[in-house]
Amino acid sequence: MATQEFDLDAFVHAVEQRDAGGQLGAYADQAQVLIVDATAPPSSPRTFDGLEAIGRWVGDVAARDMTHRVNWAAKEGDRVAFVEDCEYPGGEKVLCMTTMDIVDGRIVRQLVSQAWDS
């Protein structure tokens, strides 16, 4: 049986188009997302376990009135990384750096580090 490949181009397109369903379809059922930022330090990251929790997070981000632009992305074997610039209509910016572990073409673990204008 052939191993399914992760479609990085499709995932980037879903992120940039704020397509929550397209993004969620890339995650494995038991995936985990960890987020480190000003409100969730490395010793206590915000954690989303499983598709239901990840779906709530992705849905919240996709519903926000902001632009998303992936300005760099790479895939090597079972690892993916990308840098994303976001901007709210008022000009406030968010920078997000992500690494993902891929198994059988699906995201099983994602680590997000983000910072935003105050």
From TrEMBL:
Source organism of this protein record: Nocardioides baekrokdamisoli
Gene3D superfamilies (UniProt xref): 3.10.450.50
Database matches in InterPro entries: NTF2-like_dom_sf, SnoaL-like
Pfam families recorded: SnoaL_2
Domain of life: Bacteria
Cross-referenced SUPFAM superfamilies: NTF2-like (SSF54427)
Lineage: Bacteria, Bacillati, Actinomycetota, Actinomycetes, Propionibacteriales
Name of protein: SnoaL-like domain-containing protein
Domain SnoaL-like, residue spans: 9-109
